[in-house]
Amino acid sequence: MTAVHYEDMRNKVALVTGAASGIGEACARQFAAQGCRLLLMDRDEERLHGLSQALGAIAAPGSVTDEATVSAAVDSCLRHFGGLDYAVNSAGVAGAPAAIAETTLDAWQEVININLTGVFLCLKHQLRVMQAAGSGAIVNIASGAGVIATPHLSPYCASKHGVLGLTRTAAMELATGGVRINAVLPGSTQTPMLEASLQQGPQLEKMILASIPCGRMGSAEEIAAAALWLCSSQASYVNGHSLVVDGGTLCR
């Protein structure tokens, strides 16, 4: 990909969750390339510290499901950098495939807690800082599963529908407060989470590719580029939007 430079992002402060791999890692690298000062969150402490060291970022290991951890991470941005300009909420899990009638409550709650409650907690504490400052931009990483049915992944599908509801509600609440909140809806993207799903067999990959009009999966860097743009001043009139980045899959 050809790098795009947003001069106004230099020295701004960005917080990225789920930063140790996949889309979150790609976001962290692209914000760092813009000259942002970074705080990175992930529950994979080893990978998080390695990436943070490479990017000169502050590492905040822990789960987005723990409110105290999320609050402390946001407070750490204030303490080290004096504020928070951008946030990308990328932490998420897919969960094991199962029909609704066979989905356990524990399996349901794990996915909902990370994908939906985690985004709520992040928004809650990011917004308390941005609202006080009167500026900021947040991008929630949702999914194409947030607007269509996804059989055998009901917790994931429900959680991503919920993320879009949270995104739009937050955007409306902060519409006159100088803070923008948007979502990116990736299609099938080459990440460790998808790679794990593909271990089910070669037929699944063929089915996925057949569903994508452009004939290929997306890269984490392509999704991160969309999140970066939404945070930039180039998207200053974009608010409450669900930006689909899926190679045309939802056109079908």
Automatic annotation (TrEMBL):
A molecular function GO annotation: oxidoreductase activity
Gene3D superfamilies according to UniProt: NAD(P)-binding Rossmann-like Domain
Coiled coil: none
Signal peptide location: none
A Pfam family of this chain: adh_short_C2
Keywords from the named record: Oxidoreductase
InterPro entries: NAD(P)-bd_dom_sf (IPR036291), Sc_DH/Rdtase_CS (IPR020904), SDR_fam (IPR002347)
Family: Belongs to the short-chain dehydrogenases/reductases (SDR) family.
NCBIfam families on file: PRK07231.1
Protein name: NAD(P)-dependent oxidoreductase
